[in-house]
Design a protein that fits this description.
It is built from 12 helices and 2 strands; from the N terminus they run H-H-H-H-H-H-E-H-H-H-H-H-H-E.
């Protein structure tokens, strides 16, 4: 989102200086002056993962319980608020859908709403159950999981299909946002694994388990292909130095979430599938996660250096800063699962270190977003994407 847009058509002069009026004006969908897109749901993902990660930590989890509950309530409220703020304009003004789907950057972020729902579903079971009651918490989680999974599968098919058929993609087009549509099934795999013990014993539980592992594979293979393309783009074309740079952190998302899914599925396999197969899934979770842990450390270093380089070149704040949060949070939950299966202090303290980084990243993104709302610029319609992708002719 470009903060330098001088078009007076996107400004509401009468409301200038009253940031809270601009905020509620946007939320009601009163006109086209201000807009919220699917990228806003990254803030729900980034907030909700703080609660989920706190509940998963192998160390200090008990001390963070109250904190995790407060954050889960905040994230749940944000989800409801954003659904109301975005669905109303989308229903009333069909041009908003067209604008998003013709923007090669914005369309990728339609993967964020289903992941936001799935994140809250996980938090409802992990954090909210003692207060809502186990039965109610699980029922809410089931509803959010089904909706999030169906929407996630839709984005995993529709958005790449549109990228393949609607846009002419130049060699330097690949960026972290391309992962957003294909990661939701991986989140579904992790959250679905949490729900496996609550499924009826027998065929239904076994089917859910295999469905979750299939979602794991669906997302993982697609993510690996895109990560290779991102690496190639960086090697051949470098980085833009723009607000797209933080999206490089999204690469950590499918990596950390795959560790999380593999770990939880390895735990719940016993009781869901035959014992001989269950032991194999548990072993797989360790054999898979340890090499991925190594690549996570490597990519964290590369992404950090590239981000600092862009910052020195005066990279401006944008909603892409929320890319610092959820992906790092999935690394916390993934390392926590690895610590659970191995008992190694290495993975225990690595999860704590990444959790501290998650909290710092959230503060940075939340402060920038609040400041942008108060100034009004972050609520404006985005200018045409600067990503080197353009609609196909004819």
């Amino acid at each position: 989102m470009n903060d330098d847009n001088g078009d007076e058509a996107v400004k509401n002069v009468e409301l200038k200086g009253f940031w809270w009026k601009r905020f509620f004006y946007s939320s009601t969908g009163g006109s086209r002056d201000f807009a919220m897109g699917p990228n806003w749901f990254a803030s729900v993902m980034g907030t909700g993962i703080i609660a989920n990660a706190a509940a998963s930590l192998p160390l200090f989890s008990d001390q963070l319980h109250v904190f995790s509950v407060v954050v889960w309530i905040l994230a749940s409220t944000m989800l409801v608020g954003l659904l109301l703020a975005t669905l109303n304009p989308l229903v009333q003004h069909q041009g908003v859908w067209k604008q998003h789907f013709n923007d090669p950057t914005m369309v990728q972020f339609y993967g964020a709403p289903p992941m936001a729902m799935l994140t809250i579903a996980g938090g409802t079971v992990l954090v909210g159950a003692p207060y809502l009651g186990q039965a109610l918490a699980v029922n809410i989680a089931w509803v959010l999981w089904f909706i999030g999974t169906l929407l996630g599968l839709a984005t995993a098919v529709i958005i790449p299909f549109r990228l393949f058929t609607h846009f002419e993609v130049s060699p330097d087009s690949a960026f972290g946002g391309w992962l957003m549509p294909v990661v939701p099934p991986m989140v579904s795999a992790a959250i679905g694994a949490i729900l496996v013990p609550y499924a009826p014993v027998g065929v239904l539980r076994e089917t859910l388990f295999y469905v979750c592992f299939s979602l794991f594979g669906l997302s993982l293979i697609a993510a690996f292909i895109i990560i290779v393309m991102i690496w190639s783009r960086l090697a051949h074309h470098g980085t833009s130095g723009s607000s797209r740079v933080p999206t490089l952190w999204i690469v950590l998302g499918p990596l950390g979430q795959s560790m999380t899914a593999a770990g939880i599925l390895g735990t719940v396999a016993i009781g869901a599938v035959p014992e001989a197969i269950a032991k194999g899934f548990e072993v797989f979770s360790v054999l898979y996660s340890i090499p991925v842990f190594g690549f996570i450390v490597l990519w964290t270093c590369l992404a950090m250096l590239l981000t600092l380089r862009a910052r020195r070149r005066h990279m401006r704040f944008a909603l892409t800063y929320w890319s610092f949060t959820f992906p790092v949070g999935t690394c916390v939950t993934g390392m926590a699962q690895l610590a659970h299966h191995t008992g190694s202090p290495l993975f225990q303290w690595a999860s704590v270190l990444y959790y501290v980084a998650l909290l710092l990243a959230w503060c940075l993104a939340a402060f920038g977003t609040t400041r942008g709302i108060m100034q009004g610029h972050i609520l404006r319609h985005p200018v045409p994407s600067s990503v080197p992708v353009k609609p196909m002719k004819g």
